[in-house]
Automatic annotation (TrEMBL):
Domain Rhodanese intervals: 303-391
Organism lineage string: Eukaryota, Metazoa, Chordata, Craniata, Vertebrata
CDD domains (UniProt xref): RHOD_YceA
Cited SMART domains: RHOD
Gene name of the encoded protein: tstd2
Protein name: Thiosulfate sulfurtransferase/rhodanese-like domain-containing protein 2
PROSITE patterns: RHODANESE_3
Taxonomic source organism: Xenopus tropicalis
Length: 492
């Protein structure tokens, strides 16, 4: 495998993107056949960190070049395997072991190539306040530091540790003022690549919102690095990271980007700020409020609303008892839902909740801006944190998550049904019509009968679709979408 084949196009991280500088690394004086361990032995601690980052990047590029993908249009995922030395590898662990055992010299050569590219691209040095200096100055100057300065030290961590299963999935967010979202974006991408994390991270001037999966070693390093960064260390704590069983396999890839909002509500953050959010209740406090609410739910003059801020397909399979779950498809519809149902919220105490808490931040701010509610509260940490303390509490069914797992279960209740035969069922599948992205609750028996689409319209298209037409792009025409009111009006 040639170096150019590994480093072409977007696969090669540029020094401009990572802002890395290696003035103390002399890669020209080393032989490409020198084992990496001996090569590292002659470097100081700081340079070893830089070498470790470049080596892990080289290893990842080498492995990616061996990847072969078979796409399955009717599922969310593709079958991925790797081919090397006439052999086929079906999982990351085995291909990593093979590359480490048989191709260490090629990886080292690619490592040196990456270091050379970084060093050649580094023309100037950006002044940066050292972490040991004035902390106030550091808070304002972090984006003038090379991104490498804020990456975790993985020099003593093996590839197996960074890719081992079982792993976990992290869910977190932080609303804060971000002066340089693009720097944070580049830093997050570099860190996730270094730690072999997959997932989705949104950065904006209003903060960061992420869900990533990987080995437990990688997620631990990720959390500690986040909590040590001056932008987040006074805004976040360990409790802000929700964890669940999973790993890198839960996401098809890594997507990191800069957006206007860290969760798309469709309203500019300057108009509705997270700073105007509701009163946060701990899971225990929220549980107590819900207990009181449920004890009074049969009263005709009930003045409390337990409001689910999520989408209909989330609340359909799991929700708090006696909640109000709006039949909306996207969170960006929530403001219009509030506007259309202001009378419902008039003089009411509202208890809001969502998956991890982030949608309640600006969702509650929007509701409060209407000045109709008596009080507005939100569940801190969302359902995720509530289930940690009350796995058999008032939330029944499964928690929907936006990754390949679809759901997290804390109890055995099934509150939804197969859309065809009506039996209790809560396992989602994608609509079998290639161009439809609806989630479908169809049981195993109905699927065996070929009932795999979200509605009769899509089911008919699936039957009549020719191989040629399945490759074309059609505008979605789905009864599930067309028949559902975009903004439902509740009965007071």
């Amino acid at each position: 495998m040639s170096l150019s084949s590994c480093c072409n196009g977007t696969e090669m991280l540029t020094c401009l993107e990572l802002d890395l500088k290696f003035p103390d690394v002399d890669v020209n004086g080393s032989e490409t056949t020198t084992p990496a361990r001996n090569f590292k032995a002659g470097l100081d601690v700081n340079t070893r960190k830089k070498f470790a980052f470049a080596k892990k990047k080289a290893f990842a590029l080498f492995v990616k070049e061996l990847q072969a993908t078979v796409h399955k249009p009717q599922t969310m995922h593709s079958d991925v395997h790797w081919k090397c030395c006439g052999l086929e590898f079906m999982d990351l662990t085995t291909i990593h072991k093979h590359v480490a055992a048989q191709h260490s010299n090629e990886v080292l050569q690619l490592t040196e190539y990456i270091l050379e590219e970084f060093a050649l691209a580094a023309a100037t040095t950006v002044p940066c306040t050292e972490p040991s200096e004035n902390s106030g100055a550091l808070i304002d100057s972090w984006n003038r530091c090379p991104i490498f300065d804020w990456l975790p030290d993985t020099s003593d961590v093996s590839q197996d540790d960074l890719t081992s299963e079982p792993g976990e999935v992290l869910l977190y967010y932080c609303y804060c003022d971000v002066k340089d979202p693009q720097w944070i974006c580049n830093w997050q991408r570099a860190m996730c690549q270094l730690l072999h994390l997959t997932g989705k991270i949104r950065i904006a001037a209003e903060g960061i919102n992420g869900t990533v999966g990987g080995s437990k070693v990688s997620t631990k390093l990720y959390i500690s690095t986040m909590l040590s960064h001056p932008l987040f260390r006074d805004m976040m704590c360990l409790e802000d990271f929700k964890t669940s069983d999973g790993g890198a396999h839960c996401f098809p890839d890594l997507r990191v980007g800069v957006f206007q909002e860290i969760v798309p509500m469709g309203i500019e953050p300057q108009k509705v700020s997270y700073k105007e959010n509701a009163i946060h209740l701990s899971p225990k406090e929220f549980h107590e409020k819900v207990t009181k609410y449920l004890s009074e739910v049969s009263k005709p003059d009930l003045n409390t609303i337990l409001l689910d801020c999520r989408n209909f397909y989330e609340s359909k399979i799991g929700q708090f008892q006696n909640c109000l779950a709006p039949d909306i498809r996207k969170f960006s519809y929530f403001p219009s839902y509030v506007d259309q149902n202001l009378e419902l919220f008039k003089d009411k105490t509202v208890l809001m909740y969502c998956t991890g808490g982030i949608r309640c931040e600006r969702g509650s701010a929007y509701l409060r801006s209407k000045s109709v509610c008596k009080e507005v509260y939100q569940l801190k940490g969302g359902i995720h944190k509530y289930l940690e303390q009350f796995p058999d509490g008032y939330f029944r069914g499964k928690l929907f998550v936006f990754d390949g797992r679809y759901t997290i279960s804390s109890n055995n209740d099934i509150i939804s049904n197969c859309c065809y035969c009506g039996i209790a069922w809560d396992e989602y599948k994608l609509c079998s019509t290639t161009r439809c992205c609806q989630l479908v609750l169809t049981c195993a028996e109905c699927r065996r009968k070929g009932l795999t689409a979200c509605c009769p319209t899509c089911q008919l298209k699936e039957v009549n679709m020719s191989p040629e037409s399945s490759q074309q792009h059609f505008k979605e025409e789905c009864e599930c979408t067309d028949k559902r009111p975009k903004i439902p009006t509740e009965n007071n």
